[in-house]
From TrEMBL:
Domain of life where this protein originates: Eukaryota
Cited Gene3D superfamilies: Peptidase S8/S53 domain (3.40.50.200)
Record organism: Corchorus capsularis
Protein name: Peptidase S8/S53 domain-containing protein
GO biological process: proteolysis
Lineage, opening ranks: Eukaryota, Viridiplantae, Streptophyta, Embryophyta, Tracheophyta
Domain Peptidase S8/S53 residues, every copy: 1-129
Amino acid sequence: MVSAIGNDGPLYGTLNNPADQSDVIGVGGIDYSDHIASFSSRGMSTWEIPHGYGRVKPDVVAYGREIMGSKISTGCKSLSGTSVASPVVAGVVCLLVSIIPENKRKEILNPASMKQALVEGAAKLAGPNIYEQGAGRVDL
């Protein structure tokens, strides 16, 4: 499952559910200059702090500021938000799934294996800390 982490930044601990859950791929937003978008929520997750410590979130970041999308009527308009970035990551997951032979998908494919592939393949950004970028910019 892929989910936007929310647009409550730049404060830390502002993650939204379900993206703050460990089995969900939480996606933050960046601009085309690879800077964390000011609106992008930041980790750590907070719901488990009374009984331990928070987890690193977001898991990855993707382009989510001033992305061109379609208008309801005609033409295009500029869109921003982590809900614009998360479909990019969902598309990357679909492309990764498409290269797994159909007869092997039940053996290999699960949310954890997709999250591992995204996190290990991410490009770490210079500057932002782990609670702002997670593993870095998604990199197919």
